[in-house]
Structure formats: C-alpha cells, structure tokens
C-alpha cells in the first residue's frame, strides 16, 4: 500500500500481434481513469534508446538473436527502474502493452529457453498481478494486421507466431494468468478482463 493509501496494481497484456492488446490496454486505462485512479499505460519495447533499436529491427531485419535478447533486457531494466517500480510505489495502476512474457514467446520461438528468459527478467522485473493473454488463431491475427493497413514485420512470420502463441498458452496454469478469447468483440474481451480484476 502506498502513501496515498491506494493499492497499486500491475497489469500486463500479452498475445501475438493483431490480438487486440493495445485496444484492451486503452479501454482498461480509460475505465480506471474514469473511476478516479491514476493509471500509467506503457508499451514495450519502450521509446527509449534500446526500445528504438528494437523497433527499427522489426522493420529493417532482426538483430543477431543473442544481441536482440540483450537489448530487450536492457530496455526492460530501464523501464522497470524508471517507470514501473516508481509508479507502483506511488500506488498507481500500471498497464503494460507487452512485458517480459513477449520476450519469452518471441525469443523462445528463436530457440532460447523461455524459462531462462523468465528467470533472467524476474531477477529485476516485478511479476504482474494480472496477466491477460489475448489468444487468437495465427491466420486470424495476420488478417487483422492486414486489415488495419499494416504489413507483417520481421517478428510476425507464420511459423514464429505459432511458436510464440504456444509459449503464451503454456503459461495458462499460473494463478495470475487469464487466457481471453481474442476472437470475441472488443467489449466482450474488456468486460471479461475487468471481471478478473479486484482492487
């Protein structure tokens, strides 16, 4: 409990691209702001130095696997130190559009051990109170990406997306993890997520 007597909460939203993560993050942010809570809504990779390098690589061609993984760790360490932990200490709600579970999934799809990635991240990154995994069939996700006018980037190839989806789903036994059917309407997904959150 923070000095302002409001319970902090860390919410992470994950899933393959096209599943609706940003939409859910925005809807939850608006809801909690409407009821008077201070909300910090962030995305990863961040807009910091390391995050910009990662975003550039998604468009231009992926980095060496080990270097890419290190950049994700560097970016997240800065994010945790500068934004996530201070915001939680102030009693805010922190909503993350991607977190270290994406690193487990996408770098796991490149051959790294997802559990080791998790252990390395949890050495410094707080475990979320709620992890919402928006699950969507890969073909449907790629159609959504195309429908919004985007072209699948280097992180969004079919085989890699399927492997990433499988890694996300393997987290389903964790008590703080909630798998949401992302083929449902945005409102249905939002209402289901909100029903899981107790503040």
Instruction: Based on Cα principal axes, name the global outline.
Output: globular
Query: Strand order of the main beta sheet, please?
Result: 2-3-1-4-5
| Amino-to-carboxy terminus distance | 11 Å
The stretches of 5 or more residues where confidence is low (pLDDT under 50) are none
Structural class: alpha/beta
CATH superfamily: P-loop containing nucleotide triphosphate hydrolases
Helical residues, percent: 40-55%
In short:
Helix content is 51%, strand content 14%. By secondary structure, the chain is an alpha/beta fold.
Layout: helices, strands, pairs:
Blueprint: E1 9-14, H1 21-34, E2 39-43, H2 49-60, H3 65-89, E3 93-97, H4 100-108, H5 114-122, E4 130-135, H6 138-147, H7 158-169, E5 177-181, H8 186-196
Parallel strand pairs: 1-3, 1-4, 2-3, 4-5
Helix pairs in contact: 1-8, 2-3, 4-5, 4-7
């Amino acid at each position: 409990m923070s000095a302002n007597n409001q319970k902090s909460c860390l919410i992470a939203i994950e899933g393959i691209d096209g599943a609706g993560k940003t939409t859910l993050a925005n809807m939850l942010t608006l809801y909690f702001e409407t009821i008077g809570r201070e909300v910090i809504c962030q995305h990863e990779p961040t807009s910091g130095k390391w995050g910009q390098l990662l975003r550039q690589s998604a468009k231009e061609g992926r980095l060496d696997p080990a270097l890419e993984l290190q950049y994700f760790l560097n970016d997240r360490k800065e994010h945790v130190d500068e934004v996530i932990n201070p915001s939680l200490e102030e009693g805010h709600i922190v909503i993350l559009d991607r977190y270290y579970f994406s690193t487990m999934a996408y770098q796991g799809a490149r051959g790294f051990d997802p559990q080791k990635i998790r252990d390395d991240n949890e050495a410094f990154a707080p475990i979320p109170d709620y992890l919402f995994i928006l699950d969507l069939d890969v073909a449907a996700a790629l159609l959504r990406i195309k429908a919004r006018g985007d072209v699948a980037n280097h992180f969004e190839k079919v085989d890699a997306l399927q492997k990433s989806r499988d890694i996300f789903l393997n987290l389903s036994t964790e008590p703080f993890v909630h798998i949401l059917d992302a083929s449902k309407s945005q409102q249905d997904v939002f209402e289901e997520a909100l029903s899981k959150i107790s503040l």
